[in-house]
Amino acid sequence: MPEGTDPDNRGDAFDGPSKSELKRRMHALQRLGETLTGLSDKQLQQLPIDNERLLQVIREARSIRSHSARRRHLQLLGKLMREVDPQPIENALRELDRGHRDRTDAFHQLESLRDEMLAAGPAGVELATARWPRADRQQLRLLLLQHQRESQGGKPPAASRKLFRYLRELQELYGRSG
Questions:
Q1: What is the count of structural domains for the chain?
Q2: Do residues 64 and 108 share a domain?
Q3: What is the per-residue pLDDT across 47-67, written as a single tens digit (0 to 9) for each?
Q4: SS3 labels along the chain
Q5: The domain spanning residue 149 has which CATH number?
Q6: Is 3 inside a domain boundary?
């Protein structure tokens, strides 16, 4: 076999990531940056981003409406993202998302409880006191009776909203189950 054709002799071969792999990584960083532009300032403050220039570019990207200018700005954002470790940011984003889902689930559970209580009438008090034993039974009964009068009179559901707010207060005070 001629000297330069040995398949096991790789000599000057490059063992790093391929050009395609590098492009995929850069596009992933750019997508992460685009996700960051959709966050509020309060949410951004919760993320582990120390690079002030990166934060400035994220805030600027929100106001850009021109498609091509936005695309260029997102490319700049992707370039700046290469200077930071994306893993802690991705982890913090997952935590933010998990917290949002938990709050949404809790909201839907409270809505369901309220609807069950309203359907049960005055006996619905027991549904809330089973969950929060320290709940004010008289307040709950009053709101349920008010709702009955409102629905029979064709009035707006003010008592239903008050009941929901009271249930949310109970949840904040005593947790999901008292």
A1: 2
A2: no
A3: 999 889 999 999 999 999 999
A4: CCHHHCCCCCCCCCCCCCHHHHHHHHHHHHHHHHHHHCCCHHHHHCCCCCCHHHHHHHHHHHHCCCHHHHHHHHHHHHHHHCCCCHHHHHHHHHHHHHHHHHHHHHHHHHHHHHHHHHHHHHHHHHHHHHHCCCCCHHHHHHHHHHHHHHHHHCCCCHHHHHHHHHHHHHHHHHCCCC
A5: 1.10.60.30
A6: no
